[in-house]
Amino acid sequence: MTSKTSTTLRILAGLAALVLVAAPLAMPTYYVSVATQILIFAVLAMSVDVLAGFTGRTPLCHGAIFGTSTYVVLYTATVMHMPLPLAMLLGVLAATVLALVFGLLAVRTSGVYFLLLTLALGLIVWGICLRWTEVTGGENGLRGQLRAGLMLSTRELYVAVAVVVALVTFAMWRFVHSPFGLTLRGIRDGESRMASLGYNVPLHLTIAFTASGFFAGIAGALYAVFNDFVSPSTVQLSQSVAGLLMAIVGGVGTLFGAFVGSFIIIALEQAVSSVTERWLMVLGLTFIVIMIFAPEGVIGKARLLMAGRGQSKTKP
Amino acid sequence: MRAVAEPILKLTDVTVQFGALKAVDKVSMSLNAGERRAVIGPNGAGKTTLFNAITGTIPPTSGRVVFDGVDMSRMSPQGRAHLGVARTFQITNLFGRMSVIENMRLAVRGLSPTKFSFFGTDDLTEAQADDVRRALLSSRLDGREHVVVKEMSYGEQRQLEVAMALVGTPRLLLLDEPAAGLSPAERTFLADIIRALPRELTVVLIEHDMDLALGLVDYVTVMQNGVVIVESDPSSIRTNPLVQEVYLGKPHAVVVPGEGNADA
To answer: Is A193–B93 a contact, with Cβ atoms under 8 angstroms apart?
Structure first.
């Protein structure tokens, strides 16, 4: 009976998601644009969640990985005049390689040390983007004509992004539920046991970090097309923090919570920014409220409440 | 009792040093395939540290650990696991948020390339599923597959410790106080599980409970302050005056050997 209700629940959730994704199409273009941004940042937040939620290592460099992809896409497409698909491929590749290097440096640490090391690595990327003016344009950044080249309307772009995000989400869902995903959760809960069972913990963490960077790179490449502009603010620390906050607000270790977190933070930012300039203060307060009332995030809290109602459920 | 065959595990002058403290001091020991060995001694004797040196959790500062002809003194824990060395932990070291079957999946995939399936389903192969079933049966946890570990009794968690070490057909099993913290009834139950293990499996057992340990093994090594002081068969261990002195306390002083967990 439980499996039957959970199947019904899943179908309902899927339908609700479909309606939610389709809803912006009926709204003014401004909202379509915001919705596109929400989907792109949800992928960034999911890539953070792969590490924070499934390996137990919280990274603060994913904004830099994401932004590196954005930079590479805009540079190769605009300055080097490469075709967009190739540019996007190179952007994702650059993010993946960067993540591999970061991973090799960071995976032997954990906890606060991991957080600080990844923060420092992200800052290096930011410094390079700021100083290497002849390539990155320094403070002025890089502006492109990618959207104009695609000849897509705001709505069409939204649909295209939604399709890519759906595919990426499915891939990430398979990833965290694969044998490898279970290995990551094992490492999160007991590293010494995993080693004595024959697992090479640093190797698995490096792979996870690289995969997470690959997904962040996809988000960054989509962002290049969506935004048509990149500057050091795209790779700066606050971007990494935003990705992490979205994952936390939605619920670390839930994967899909990233969509909720991305929605809450971006929608709130849009709403608050039109009223006051004190957006960061509101963000801080939101974060505190979430930490007090739902430290396991919105989806995490919802799951707990549901599990409380049906005590017999054993699935984590 | 001691056969002349090539030993499966041979320790030569194994020393583990933490700063000025020699937790394990030039321990030499040799085990034949299929042997059951107990390592006993008071708290702080260096028993768990010796295990850590054998499994690679803390590699020995000096000395050699040779397993089935392979010098693994400097190998990583996972490298030693691949040679067939399995262990349980004194302080329960399980994946508490996962179910029994998920713990077993991690255990059975540890030595298999299927752990590198990135997008596949979480199901086990048929051979792996058989292996898991057999291990759960030997540790009498069959039928408990879908229980979340932290919701099981402590006794069952200790059984799972053993079950996880049994998959992947290990050749050397190191049991670090498998019965620690169990009730007398649970201890007997766990002793039966250990006694029923396949005879070709070499087992080293750390145990505080002398009655339990002596009833399970062929040979006993007694440690104190990082040094092996006595090696003998179980029947003569109780009457050995040295053992009585260090393990049970000197005759004139009433010293109760501790049950604590603070093994250095």
So the answer is: yes
Q: What pLDDT digit, counting tens, does each position of A177-195 carry?
A: 999 999 999 999 988 889 9
- Same domain flag for B76 and B15: yes
Residue B205 main-chain phi, psi, to 5 deg: -125, 125
What is the C-alpha to C-alpha distance for residues B204 and B123, in angstroms, rounded to an integer? 32
Examine the fold and report which residue of B168, B192, B214 is the final residue of a domain before the chain moves on.
B168
Whether B95 and A177 lie within 8 Å, measured CB to CB: no
Contact at CB, A193 and B86, closer than 8 angstroms: no
Q: Mind telling me how many Å the CA of A172 is from chain B's nearest CA?
A: 8
Closest Cα to residue B191, out of B153, B217, B157, B164?
Answer: B217
Range A24-28 contact pairs with CB under 8 angstroms and sequence separation of 24 or more: A24/A158, A25/A155, A25/A158, A25/A159
Q: What is the pTM of this model?
A: 0.86
The contact set of B with A (CB < 8 A) is 55-57, 76-78, 81-82, 86-87, 89, 93-99, 102, 105-107, 109-111, 114-122, 146-148, 164, 168
Q: CA triplet A270, A275, A279: central angle to 5 degrees?
A: 60
Q: Does a structural domain hold residue B157?
A: yes
Residue B234 predicted with pLDDT over 70: yes
Domains of chain A as residue ranges with CATH: 30-309 (1.10.3470)
Query: How high is the pLDDT of residue B3?
Result: 46
Per the CB < 8 A criterion, the answer to whether A81 and A253 are in contact is: no
Whether residues B185 and B150 fall in one domain: no
A101, containing H or E segment: helix A84-106
Number of structural domains found in chain B: 2
CATH number at residue B56: 3.40.50.300
Question: Are B180 and B264 part of one and the same domain?
Answer: yes
Strands, E, within B55-177: which ranges? 62-67, 70-71, 85-87, 172-176
Say if residue B124 is in the same domain as residue B180. Answer: no
Please report the ipTM that was assigned to this predicted complex: 0.82
Residue that terminates a domain, selected from B140, B168, B196: B168
**pLDDT more than 90, % of chain B:** 51
Residue of B nearest to A198 (CA): B78
Chain B residues closer than 8 Å to A177 by CB = 121-122
Q: Does the residue B8 lie in any domain?
A: yes
Contacts of B93 in chain A (CB under 8 A): 190, 192-193
Q: Is residue B39 part of a domain?
A: yes
Q: Quick check: is B89 in a domain?
A: no
Nearest CA-CA distance, residue A186 and chain B, Å: 7
Are residues B115 and B197 part of one domain?
A: no
Looking at the predicted structure, is the pLDDT value of residue A228 above 50?
yes
Q: CB–CB of A185 and B96 under 8 A?
A: no
Which residue, chain included where needed, has tokens 């700063």?
A: B19
- Residue range(s) defining the domain that contains residue B250: 1-84+170-264
pLDDT at A304: 84
In chain B, the percentage of residues whose pLDDT exceeds 70 is 91
Residue range B141-177, pLDDT digits in tens:
988 999 999 999 999 999 999 999 999 889 999 999 9
Residues of B in contact with A194 (CB under 8 A): 106, 110
CB A190, CB B93: distance < 8 Å: yes
Say whether B118 and A175 touch across the interface (CB within 8 A).
yes
B73-108 pLDDT tens trace: 999 998 999 999 999 988 888 999 999 999 999 999
Cβ contact B148–A316 (<8 Å): yes
